Amino acid sequence: MKIATFNVNGINTRLDSLLAWLREEEPDVACLQDLKAAHEQFPRKALADAGYGAIWHGQKAWNGVAILARGSDPVEIRRGLPGDPDDSQSRYIEAAVEGIVVACLYLPNGNPQPGPKFDYKLAWFDRLLERAKQLYASGQPVVLAGDFNVVPTDEDIYNPKSWRKDALLQPQSRERYQRLLAQGWIDSLRDVFGEERVYTFWDYFRQHWQRDAGLRIDHLLLNAQLAPRLSEAGVDRWVRDLERASDHAPTWIVLDP
Question: Endonuclease/exonuclease/phosphatase domain location, by residue (predicted)?
């Protein structure tokens, strides 16, 4: 079973690239972030024609998350991260797919910091920690997949020096990511790649893609029930090289039956 996460950076703007990736790589589950589309603008028919059922949580112009399943319809469990009834940003959705609980998340960027956006990032992360603790203890196989907007360590970025003030590298962000792993979650890419450098994001500035000046901020975390099934992981870098590409590349794992 292949599970992927992909920040599409505008699902309708980059629909051709998304469909090309789905045709070529055939993930069984795809968690998408940053749809930048209201609920009614989601391209459900195009995805259905490509063989994917979908649930989504849209928001006009910003944010938005979706879970796609090849040849089936995801069964929605939860829409929105619990803990703040006043939070109107579309950043979290859960579904059951083929016996696995899939949580798709788009953690806030948090820039500029310090300030209200960074405060929101940390508060959202605290809520995620609570929900993740519940999911981990559920006894069900669970994957937390998405754009976490956290560079876990200096080994996950081409050069941390120029990013030290960025919200993605702040000690508070990294400390919360480590607290998440301390619950028992396995960082699947790091588990497979070991100390090898691997990136999932290259911004549009200063030829970062051409220079392979990347960051690893897209993660797939597995709980104790699912971690033993992990067999492969990778990044579909070719998608980042397409015309008008997202600044992220699809990141994936393969689970044994």
Answer: 4-248
